[in-house]
Amino acid sequence: MYNHLLFPAQDHLWTVDGLLARFRPNLVISGCAPFDEDNWQEVHVDRHSFVVTGQCTRCQMICVDQSNGLRNTEPLVALRQLRNPPQQMMTFGIYLTQGIKKNII
């Protein structure tokens, strides 16, 4: 389904499927600018409302290929270079808690 390459690479690591397998998101949103979620306070999906409770810090698990258990630090290194100065805790994504959407009967 998502087999096009995001970056020139020789393996599955940089395909959308490969990235989704490593990051294991619960919800993927498209149609917005990269990292827009850093400034969101709420997310609304149909009649469901979620409150942003914080940014997600990234751990070493994104370096493990879930299909074979092999470790490759490239995703973490690339994300660190892209996202934050080295002294800060690296974040990517947000934590959501189910909330109550106003004005719905």
Chain-wise SSE layout:
Elements: H1 16-23, E1 42-45, E2 48-57, H2 74-83, E3 91-99
Antiparallel strand pairs: 1-2, 2-3
In short, what is this structure?
The chain is an alpha+beta fold and 105 residues long. It has 2 helices and 3 strands.
Q: Could you characterize what this model shows?
A:
This protein has 2 helices and 3 strands, in the order H-E-E-H-E. It has helices spanning 16-23, 74-83; strands at residues 42-45, 48-57, 91-99. The chain has a 3-stranded antiparallel β-sheet, with no helix packed on it. A hairpin with a 2-residue loop joins strand 1 and strand 2. The chain is globular and about 40 Å long. The N and C termini lie far apart (37 Å).
Number of helices: 2
Task: Find the count of extended strands (DSSP E, 2+ residues).
Answer: 3
Structural class: alpha+beta
Binned strand content: 15-25%
Uncertain spans: 1-9
Keyword list:
105 residues; alpha+beta; three-stranded antiparallel sheet; 2 helices; 17% helix
